[in-house]
Design brief:
This protein is an alpha/beta fold. It is built from eleven helices and 14 strands. The chain is 42% helix and 23% strand. Helix 1 packs across helix 2 and helix 1 packs across helix 3.
Length: 325
């Protein structure tokens, strides 16, 4: 068997013969005479020392060996076409539409992300679908989804972007009037803003160095939207448990003050989810790279400034009412 002399062109030609069903049809597609096609397949069989096709006057049929060899040749042709498509794609400006699904709570932060992306890629169009239902990406023709929490085994590709934790925050105005809580027990004497409308949502479960502790939060306002809850906290209506990923900028600006940083809520992963596939359009590939880098740049660095024991100037500052306590 002289495999060193086997031509990749002959392998591709053999795959075309099988798909076309005859030497004549394959030759017509390839622009070659039937005799040339037949001769090259025969040469391939001699080099392999194996019969690939059973020939009759009416049809060609694959032998068992030919069927296995055809599968390899078919993959070779597919890989070659993908390689050409990718090279051509890499030389073009990424363009087209990217459809992205996000939870309604996440829409404001995704707006900042997409503003940065669209400034960099002027030939790409974004369709943002903000919805609290879990969309079917394949059935609804959506390219990507940003999803919080554990992901089901759906056959989709997922790339973890980071984690977010709930942290207690209040506005400087609220703390001027009511002081800082010094421990979890002090929360009983403060007004708390609840996320969620059920009675179980009034119980906050904190994680710290010494394990988990639960506190029943007391308050008159309950909402089912983080942005509304954050606005309520910014207006001095109480202490809220807010995701650091969504409200880190407000903390950095001093509009919200983190409280009891040694106690945090359970971390929740944020992932970019998309249908799998070996060849993604260039607009999709640049979107994946941009989103991954953007979160690493904006939120992993920011995490150090809001983590327990952080030492930013704003965390060290306390209101006059807090100093009295």
């Amino acid at each position: 068997m002289d495999t060193n002399r086997i031509s990749l062109d002959d392998m591709a030609l053999f795959a075309e013969v099988v798909q076309a069903g005859s030497f004549t049809a394959a030759g017509s597609y390839l622009g070659l005479p039937k005799s040339s096609v037949s001769r090259r397949v025969a040469r391939l069989e001699r080099q392999l020392d194996a019969r690939l096709l059973n020939r009759t006057t009416r049809a060609l049929r694959l032998t068992d060996i030919g069927r296995v060899y055809f599968q390899h040749c078919q993959r070779l042709v597919h890989e070659a076409r993908e390689a050409v498509a990718e090279v051509v794609d890499l030389q073009k400006e990424p363009a087209g539409t990217v459809r992205l699904s996000v939870a309604s709570n996440f829409a404001p932060l995704s707006g900042k992300l997409l503003a940065d992306f669209l400034r960099q890629y002027e030939t790409i169009r974004i369709e943002l679908i903000a919805s609290d239902r879990v969309v079917d990406l394949v059935a609804e023709g959506i390219d990507f989804a940003l999803r919080f929490g554990a992901l089901p085994d759906s056959g989709l590709t997922a790339r973890k972007l980071g984690t977010t934790r709930g942290m207690l925050c209040a506005s400087p105005e609220y703390l001027e009037r009511h002081g800082h809580p010094r421990n979890l027990d002090d929360l009983q004497h403060h007004t708390c803003i609840h996320y969620g409308l059920g009675p179980r949502d009034h119980v906050w479960r904190f994680h710290g160095e010494h394990g988990m502790q639960t506190v029943e939060a007391v308050g008159r306002l309950a909402v089912n939207d983080f942005q509304t809850m954050g606005e309520a906290a910014l207006h001095g209506l109480g202490i809220a448990a807010l995701p650091d990923m969504l409200f880190g900028a407000q903390i950095e600006a001093g509009r919200l003050v983190p409280l009891l940083p040694e106690w945090r809520f359970r971390p929740i992963d944020l992932s970019l989810v998309y249908p799998g596939g070996r060849h993604l359009p260039r607009r999709s590939r640049v979107f994946i790279t941009f989103v991954t880098d953007w979160f690493e740049r904006h939120h992993q660095a920011g995490r150090a400034q809001t983590k327990p024991g952080g030492s930013t100037a704003r965390q060290r500052r306390r209101s006059p009412a807090a100093r009295k306590n």
